[in-house]
Amino acid sequence: MGVDWLHLDVMDGHFVPNLTFGPPIIKCLTRRLQNRTFIDLHCMIQEPRKWIKDLSNAGGHQMTVHYESDIGNIEELSQMIKSAGMRPALALKPKTLIDHTLIEIFDKQLFDMILIMTVEPGFGGQKFMTDMLPKVTQLRQRYPKIDIQVDGGVNCDNVISCYEAGANVIVSGSGIVNAKDPQQSINYMKECGCQHFKW
C-alpha cells in the first residue's frame, strides 16, 4: 500500500528562506513516475502566477499557493491554475486567521483544497502545532465536501487528531521517512483516514 499523492515543497528562497527545486526537477520526477501518482505542488514562492505554466508543463496535478504570498487577484489566479489543467488550492500559514475576507473567498469555491499549515512553512522536522486544528474544524463545519489538508509535523501519534478535526488529506514527511517502518506508518495513516472518511 503506497502513498496516494506525492507532495512536493517548491521553495524560492524569498517567500521562505529555504530553496528546493523548480520545474526541471519536477519534470524529471514526473517522467519517472509515468503519471502513476498525483503530484501535489505546495508552492512556497513569492509570485506563484509566474510559474503556473511551467509547473503544469512539468506534470503538476495540483498547485497550492499561499494566501500570504504576492498572489494578486485571487479569482484570476484560481482561473489561471484551472486553465493550465491543475487543481487550485490555497494554503494558510499558522498566524493567518480565518477572517471574513477568507470566508468570502472560500464561499466562492475558487479552490478545490485548503491547506492548513501545522508548522511554519520552509523547513521540515518541526513540531506539530496542535492549536491549528480548530481552524480545520471551523472549515470542515462550513465546507463539508472540500478537501482539507494538514501539513507539518504529522506522524502516527497525532494523525488521528487531524482526521477528527476534519482533515481528509494528510502530508507527512519526517513522520514517514524517520519512522522505524515507513511502510507501516503509511498503512496506519491511511487506515485511520478510511475509518473517518467514507466519501
TrEMBL record:
It comes from the Eukaryota. The keyword Isomerase applies. PANTHER family: RIBULOSE-5-PHOSPHATE-3-EPIMERASE. Keywords: Isomerase. This is Ribulose-phosphate 3-epimerase. GO terms for biological process: carbohydrate metabolic process. GO terms for molecular function: racemase and epimerase activity, acting on carbohydrates and derivatives. Coiled coil: none annotated. The keyword Isomerase applies. PROSITE patterns: RIBUL_P_3_EPIMER_1 (PS01085), RIBUL_P_3_EPIMER_2 (PS01086).
